[in-house]
């Protein structure tokens, strides 16, 4: 029996299959193909440009200057990997609590409690961000470093903060940048980028007056930033294996900074968050912080999420344009002469109330989870902003201004002396770079 007239289109599609569908939607497929080609061409353009002076031009990594390292770091955290850089900073700060001497110090200061934890974490993060986002010869960078030096000074003098603990904290900052990007981002860091991260952390460690004597090449110096960061990471991992042990103060540290964030969501959410955080740590630090292993099921779920994100960013997403560069710190002071912070959390410290800070999708999601709205409770969360001369725990707020000014002047003299030299070279100083 001949087919009915109305059956012919169905039969035709069945015979032609995908080619027929593509032909009838050729404009869409042409545009999609062009888009994928553009993504393929542009995705690595920024990375290739950063490497160009040291690949095509043939310059050795030892010739990288502090300014070049700053420019590379800026692109990594504002354009290439803002998510990973933020996460690396958070994980490194958490891991400080896994070192017994550090967690004990946090406990005895009286600031390691639910009332003060939010502000302390934000203040620490801001000082780190200021040092990572400003040029080394800028006033803001020097003020941030001087503030950290002042806040650490009395504890270092009393032997409550060890030089090795500070070196570990510096090393964890470098380690987690490399680890998180290589594990979770759409591409790994190049040697040029690792060199820049190493040079940045070397300079920061010098400005924080952290001795590098425990590192293997301390006596002869390091060839370049890549050499330095490799040794720093190796030493950091060995130090964790040596000293990181479960303690009551370490457990309390996690309960204050992790459990308090989910206390209104129930124990199931808290347990889930602890496992997610545990998945970002190795066995040594996970046990030291009394965090559980994620288990096989959650590990598969998290791995799938990471793999999917990598695929979408690598093959389907255009690079972030410069006009959408991620920026969490105000580029200039506000009308009060203070700086605002835009990386909101459950407590909106120093966040200026506004349409986006209050009603963006991220801000609304945080409030659904129990976060405070920027500007709520009046001046409780200091929406007018922060000053780098006074930021810190309430007992230290406003103290040390004169000491900091002296530190800034010393840094200016040191940076001016090195301004025209490559970033890594041997110096007649305690820390040596080849």
From TrEMBL:
InterPro entries per record: MPAB
Range of residues in the leader sequence: none
Transmembrane segments: 12-38
Coiled coil: none
Molecular function GO labels: oxidoreductase activity
Superkingdom to which the source organism belongs: Eukaryota
Chain segments carrying region Disordered: 375-401
Keyword terms of this UniProt record: Membrane, Transmembrane, Transmembrane helix
Protein name, entry field: ER-bound oxygenase mpaB/mpaB'/Rubber oxygenase catalytic domain-containing protein
């Amino acid at each position: 029996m001949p087919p009915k007239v109305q059956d012919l289109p169905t039969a035709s599609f069945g015979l032609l299959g995908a080619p027929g569908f593509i032909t009838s939607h050729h404009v869409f497929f042409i545009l999609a193909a062009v888009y994928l080609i553009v993504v393929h061409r542009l995705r690595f353009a920024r990375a290739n440009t950063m490497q160009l002076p040291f690949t095509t031009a043939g310059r050795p990594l030892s010739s990288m200057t502090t300014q070049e390292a700053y420019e590379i770091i800026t692109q990594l955290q504002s354009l290439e990997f803002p998510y990973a850089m933020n996460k690396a900073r958070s994980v490194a700060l958490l891991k400080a609590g896994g070192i017994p001497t550090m967690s004990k110090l946090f406990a005895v200061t009286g600031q390691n409690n639910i009332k003060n934890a939010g502000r302390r974490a934000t203040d620490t993060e801001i000082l780190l961000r200021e040092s990572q986002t400003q040029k080394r010869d800028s006033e803001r960078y020097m003020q941030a470093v001087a503030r950290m030096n002042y806040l650490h000074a009395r504890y270092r003098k009393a032997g409550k903060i060890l030089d090795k603990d500070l070196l570990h904290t510096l090393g964890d900052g470098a380690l987690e940048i490399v680890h998180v990007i290589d594990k979770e981002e759409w591409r790994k860091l190049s040697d040029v980028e690792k060199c820049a991260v190493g040079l940045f952390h070397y300079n920061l460690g010098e400005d924080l007056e952290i001795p590098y004597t425990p590192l293997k090449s301390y006596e002869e110096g390091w060839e370049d930033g890549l050499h330095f960061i490799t040794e720093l990471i190796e030493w950091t991992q060995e130090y964790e294996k040596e000293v990181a042990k479960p303690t009551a103060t370490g457990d309390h540290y996690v309960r204050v900074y992790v459990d308090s964030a989910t206390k209104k969501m129930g124990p199931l959410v808290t347990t889930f968050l602890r496992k997610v955080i545990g998945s970002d740590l190795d066995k040594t630090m996970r046990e030291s912080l009394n965090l559980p292993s994620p288990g096989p099921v959650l590990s598969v779920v998290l791995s799938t999420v990471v793999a999917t994100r990598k695929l979408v960013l690598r093959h389907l997403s255009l690079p972030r344009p410069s006009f959408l560069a991620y920026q969490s710190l105000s580029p200039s002071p506000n009308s009060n002469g203070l700086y605002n912070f835009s990386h909101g959390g459950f407590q909106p410290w120093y966040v200026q109330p506004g349409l986006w800070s209050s009603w963006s999708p991220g801000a609304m999601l945080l409030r659904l989870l129990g976060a405070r709205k920027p500007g709520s409770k009046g001046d409780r969360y200091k929406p007018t902003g922060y000053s780098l001369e006074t930021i810190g725990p309430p007992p230290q707020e406003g103290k040390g201004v004169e000491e900091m000014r002296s530190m800034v002047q010393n840094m200016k003299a040191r940076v001016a002396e090195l301004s025209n030299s490559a970033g890594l070279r041997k110096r007649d100083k305690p820390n040596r770079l080849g």
